[in-house]
Records
---
Amino acid sequence: QKEVEQNSGPLSVPEGAIASLNCTYSDRVSQSFFWYRQYSGKSPELIMSIYSNGDKEDGRFTAQLNKASQYVSLLIRDSQPSDSATYLCAVTEGLIKAAGNKLTFGGGTRVLVKP
Amino acid sequence: DTAVSQTPKYLVTQMGNDKSIKCEQNLGHDTMYWYKQDSKKFLKIMFSYNNKELIINETVPNRFSPKSPDKAHLNLHINSLELGDSAVYFCASSLPGTGVRLTGELFFGEGSRLTVL
């Protein structure tokens, strides 16, 4: 069973600070990595995808990937109260196929941004 | 228009009953999924269909039976409900990937919260 692990939190950050979320995964051949945000009682929505080692920035979000360490992280800069949510790390299992690709999700990190 | 819609949003039922959840997507995607999210927030894939063909069937009790009449619809029927089936069930759809770049963008429905008493 491939695993994706995250600290469940809550991660409490003051408004305007940087929130740093971490995720480790067990499948060495995983090729695609994602961060989803889930507000309480709502469905997950994709906020970042990353495929290559290094950093990828999109607005206030930066995803970082280190395949050698099997580690992916998400930084949220200038955190806002509206960023308060659970952040789910998701990793494709095995090599990418034409169809039948499976995303394995971590248990999520709950982030609380305090005004 | 809602992209991925599920019905019903809430289900409360007794152990041993049979229930169904319906899902429809109007995004034109070929691939649809059922995910289960338990009380600890773990999202686990149950089934995936690509253009009406079952392509992922996780270790799920055979009391759960998916059915895809066409690529825009994916239903889930659950027989002989048990307490442990209580969860939120999410339907999702996705675009195919290209090469190694699986888009990974799952478009989720709002979820169907099932409570088994």
---
Amino acid sequence: AQRVTQPEKLLSVFKGAPVELKCNYSYSGSPELFWYVQYSRQRLQLLLRHISRESIKGFTADLNKGETSFHLKKPFAQEEDSAMYYCALRGGRRALTFGSGTRLQVQP
Amino acid sequence: DAGVIQSPRHEVTEMGQEVTLRCKPISGHDYLFWYRQTMMRGLELLIYFNNNVPIDDSGMPEDRFSAKMPNASFSTLKIQPSEPRDSAVYFCASSSWGKGPFGLNTEAFFGQGTRLTVV
């Protein structure tokens, strides 16, 4: 079975503060991990995937297999980062399994 | 390509009525997924298809829900009869299992969703 846990429903920070959105997973094999973002009234879109090891909009995420985590980080939050963030896993089946999501609120 | 297209964008219906949600995937994609989004449970996979064939429908909540994919460019999700607890945003997504960047399979592209309200 595969499972994704995002423990925080809401994370509120001030502009310029560091951000860390937590994601833990359970899967017995080697998963693909993703972060998707949903801005207000927009469709869900891919933010980044662990295998590409890229930084998108200042966000990074490192896969820690020992801790089975894939936390999303940004050193300085911007107001335009306010959105719903979903961590997702693709394991043995083709479909993504999503966490319950974390709403990031960046206050001015 | 306009991306994944869902219709209608909003649907309000009375309890007991039949509801049909529609999805047009991105041309060339061979996987299609239906998800449901609620505040309480986040995004849940309902069913997915590969080459128009249902592969996993274990997420379909009950027999009131059914999904079809008659061809590569169209899928429907039907709820009959609808109930207030079915109120949610329903997303359709598609992807291709070919090789994209980094030699990996491509990402899932989502439609804008259908907001269903059952009163």
---
Amino acid sequence: DAGVIQSPRHEVTEMGQEVTLRCKPISGHNSLFWYRQTMMRGLELLIYFNNNVPIDDSGMPEDRFSAKMPNASFSTLKIQPSEPRDSAVYFCASSLETMNTEAFFGQGTRLTVV
Amino acid sequence: DAKTTQPNSMESNEEEPVHLPCNHSTISGTDYIHWYRQLPSQGPEYVIHGLTSNVNNRMASLAIAEDRKSSTLILHRATLRDAAVYYCILRDFYGGSQGNLIFGKGTKLSVKP
């Protein structure tokens, strides 16, 4: 397996534009996480899916952020409208939902909103 | 959610063992202790995890206190490549968090040649 695949790797957009980040989890994994990382706030959990269902979205900053998981092999994180303070590295991770498993992270998407 | 406390930073010399501590005094009986690390400009990567017994793998060892209120990640011979931020996380599949994976601030490990 190629691991967790995120796209794009880098995104530069203007304030007010819609941004969509994509994640393909490892095949067979049924848990998926979206994180945001900045120097100031560290690694923040945004949302956690289990079997395609959002379990915990308490970390989603505000209504401008939305995440979907239409099937077990694909998830999106959308920001509309984007703001400069959304600039960060966004990570997606997946794991099996059992007690003895590890989460695998993608390479991240570096988002810059100007 | 159960919390963990780690030192902000630690230093080590290359080729020497490193002991990274983590306190989790409010751990519940169903919490697993997970360790991840994040190398510069990369996503976090899994290191090791355990429940009650000490664990060893090719990367590190995990020593868990008998009362489970603390644990120590042991790197037996630090290399320059081990310089990273190390995160200690409690993961519970039975409680309200349902397997959530929440990162704290971690310990930034520096390795000197």
---
Amino acid sequence: DQQVKQNSPSLSVQEGRISILNCDYTNSMFDYFLWYKKYPAEGPTFLISISSIKDKNEDGRFTVFLNKSAKHLSLHIVPSQPGDSAVYFCAARYNNAGNMLTFGGGTRLMVKP
Amino acid sequence: DTAVSQTPKYLVTQMGNDKSIKCEQNLGHDTMYWYKQDSKKFLKIMFSYNNKELIINETVPNRFSPKSPDKAHLNLHINSLELGDSAVYFCASMGGYYNSPLHFGNGTRLTVT
């Protein structure tokens, strides 16, 4: 029972263009969302987050959009760079004991020079 | 000055053996986690400890036993290893605020033969 889903296992984008990674969730109790980036043989590293009271959060080239009614969020990377090539995980949290994160299955982004 | 460190990075062992993975964080965080990334690349919560106390224990076989000697350490002991235990295990820690991200170690790749 996947509560957080990333339906695109992979995405290929040309350098300089926009990358859009999507994430859907089913649990309406989720109120905090995060994106992580993961390189091979390394742990996930935090990228950007958004609270459910907002619909947009921006940090440099990275912007996360949240559509609560659709239970959908997306990560925009503009402009995409070859160093952005990695697996991106969407994660969600609600106020439970332990504040654990529930992760999506990941999307592999390939940015071509 | 690695924030969350795990040892060993690779662990190859035979079925039936008992093994341990160590995790240490120097971030001063109170909460630590173990996540498992299976062959389908999903990151799933296994355990959560807050200040040495077990908070979350997801549906994990009793063969897995976490131990937290102090709040900076969370070790994972696995008894009677099975082929299905082969995976990458990630340790993580989290600060005291609800909107704090998790900080992950670089993972331990366990291969059971």
